[in-house]
Amino acid sequence: MTTTTKATALILLLVGVVSGDLYMHNPRGSNNRLNEKSANRANANRLFDSQNNDRGGYNVGDKTSEPAGDNAENQYNMNYFQSGPFVFTASGTGGSQLTLEWTNQHGCGGNEDSDPQKQNCNLVIQYMCEDTFDSSLKTQLRDGVNTQQMAYTPPPNTETEEKAKSRKDENLDPKKGLQESWESYDNCYIRERNAGLFTADQKLKKNNKGYSSAIHTRQNPNGNRRGYECPEERDYFPYWHPSQWKDIAVLAENSSICSHYKSKSFNTRSYHQCVETWPSGNRKSSSRWNNEAECTQNSGKWVELSNYLEKAPAFTSEAFCLSASSSSTRYMWSVPYDADNVDKPECLVALPELECSAAPWSRSNHLGNGRGDGQPLTYTWTLPYFPSGHEHKCVLRMRYNISTDDYDPYNTDLKHNNDNGVISPVQDNIELDIGGPVKLQMALNTDQTGRVFQDRSHVFHLMPRPSGWENEKIVNLNVRGKRGNIVQVYPAVEYDFTPNHLHITASDLVHIQWTGSNTHLNGNPAGDGQAGNDGEGKAGTDRLNMVQIGDLKDNFPLPYEQTTMWKNADIVWIHHKKTDISSKDLALEMSASGYYRCFKKSSCPESEHKDYIVETKTQLQKTLDNAPASYPGAVLRFRSGTYHYMCTRNNNFTNRSNKGTIHVM
Fold first, then answer.
1. Which of 120, 390, 486, 541 registers the highest number of CB atoms within 10 A of its CB?
2. In sequence order, what are the residues at sequence separation of 6 or more whose Cβ sits closer than 8 angstroms to the Cβ of residue 198?
3. Burial degree of 361 (CB within 10 A; 0-12, 13-18, 19+)
4. Where are the alpha helices (DSSP H) in 556-601?
5. How many alpha carbons fall within 13 Å on the CB side of residue 85?
6. pLDDT for residue 219 is more than 80
7. Domain for residue 279, yes or no?
8. What is the extent of the structural domain holding 518?
9. Strand, coil or helix: what is 433?
10. Helix%, strand%, coil% for the chain, nearest 5
11. Residue 126 covered by a domain
């Protein structure tokens, strides 16, 4: 990835060829999967370029005990409550905390002097969101219902505004997954690439207009397309061009570089773009020119554009907008990156500064836990607060960048490309002369030097908080993993709760929620791994529940009369809105994954609960086969104590220790 615009580039490289590298486990990373019954994903190009092994990733969740199929309404999107309109404090008052969990294959973290790694690295965490109240959105985030890639038709040499709109409409298919907008890829395809970048000995191809554009990079010299992701934006960070993505954090090779990442983040600094218009005055989605001189010489306008959390249309003047800022929300008067009219500033909710710290330590060639306490690699994301009070639909993205020191990562640029008599410091399959007739060949591909791996979540929702929760701290408790033993699911993981050791206070709220698929069959094709889906219950199905145990070493749930976990929990919110159920009914619901709500009709007399009563509902199957694969859950406040719990179905010898602990102080 790079640091600048047109000249100097920070180049990260990996010597050698690897098969896969970064996998998100909470929220579940898709690795471009959707609902495949095979161990291998069906389409590595569906939404983005992961560079990961085909076997990685988790299917989108299902709402019921049956596969969603071609009905997107039956897919389950995780729902997290937004943070409150609070002032950030050390205790996190008012924040909603989501634990991100992942594995990265080639190692990261450590101290350069006393604890060196075998490579340089960083991890970049970002998200994008859409306001579900806005029907005019250009993107319309969705997971889709089939594994095909969205289409893209390159523009002809000359095109009218009507033809451009028709080209877009013909490309978009509501049944296919969509993250980046069509407009953003059209701009990437048309815009000339950054010619100041180091491309080693790679020969970058050209688009249909006869020049290399931002779809052509050293890692992607052929300009291959994955969804509507822009390859140049994917490969380089901080990026020098406006983007839909919001920065959360960089987990850097060392903390000394953090000031650089913060200063270049699109969260807090603006970037320019060449804007051209149609004869009607409407903004074109693309322009060829990537610098001010060529832009203005070709009748374009070089415009400074800003990123934002959401728009605030109620504030119609600069003075009104800026005066609305408070200790928890900063407003700015600026032109947004996606403005239809770039001559008209708008009131925008400003994004916070990028967080940055040294990456957690992980071992090279090992997709596993970190060092020290042996726990998974994690980052705690304090979810955003949207002043509009609107629900937002979002996607999380994580990129992992690795390099060695075979050339200067800061001062290697276009002047070092293999051209005009210059020999690149790295070359494809270079042969080394070690004396006499003896030569050794390095297995090195320069399109894989400075390599970036990526994973993204399925769509999830950020929900506004109910009234009265403004200053409450919410901690999300979820489930990772999928059906099968460790060989069958690798490089995904077996089931576990996350965080599986949760330390909170008696004033904190815990949102318990999980999701699973009905098509995790891990069948053929299985690639380089083992097919199959060992486990209990119906083949290919994820099922979870929570029951209390006396100790983490126990494997038998406590009878309700001996439990304390649910008796010491106050229901603050529950997905079916009935917060006055008894602790016994809460224990029932958690153990049944939402299949039941109450033992007796007298406890749930309202009509909306009539189909969830033990007295009248078809009996729950012992291994939860007829229970939903996903559970929207409840927000609980636990009294002081230590509570151990487990999942009854996923705790045999093959899929063991699906357990966790909540420590309440």
1. 541
2. 9, 11, 218, 412, 413, 414, 416, 417, 450
3. middle
4. 583-591
5. 14
6. yes
7. no
8. 473-664
9. strand
10. 10, 25, 65
11. no
Rounded CA separation 523/42 (Å): 12
**Residue 663: CA count within 13 A, CB half-sphere:** 6
User: What mean pLDDT, rounded, does the chain reach?
Assistant: 92
Quote the CA–CA distance of 572 and 569 in Å, as a whole number: 9
Residues 610-633 pLDDT 10s? 999 999 999 999 999 999 999 999
Predicted confidence (pLDDT) per residue in 113-159, tens digit: 777 788 888 999 999 999 999 877 777 999 999 999 999 999 999 99
As for how many domains the chain has, the answer is 1
Q: pLDDT at residue 191 above 50?
A: yes
Which residue's structure tokens are 């340089």? Answer: 120
Q: Which two tokens stand for residue 573?
A: 């919110």
**Cβ neighbours for 605, distance < 8 A, ≥ 6 positions apart:** none
Q: Does a structural domain hold residue 335?
A: no
How far, in Å, CA of 338 to CA of 343, rounded?
12
pTM for this model (two decimals) = 0.95
Distance CA 281, CA 14 (A): 47
The percentage of residues in the chain with a pLDDT greater than 90, rounded to a whole number, is 80
Distance CA(303)–CA(273), nearest Å, equals 5
Q: Cα 236 to chain center, whole Å?
A: 17
Kindly tell me if the per-residue pLDDT of 90 is higher than 60. Answer: no
Is residue 208 in a domain?
no
Distances (CA, A) of 25 to 67, 492, 533, 611: 21, 7, 18, 33
Structure-block tokens of residue 237:
């960070």
Q: Which pLDDT belongs to residue 327?
A: 84
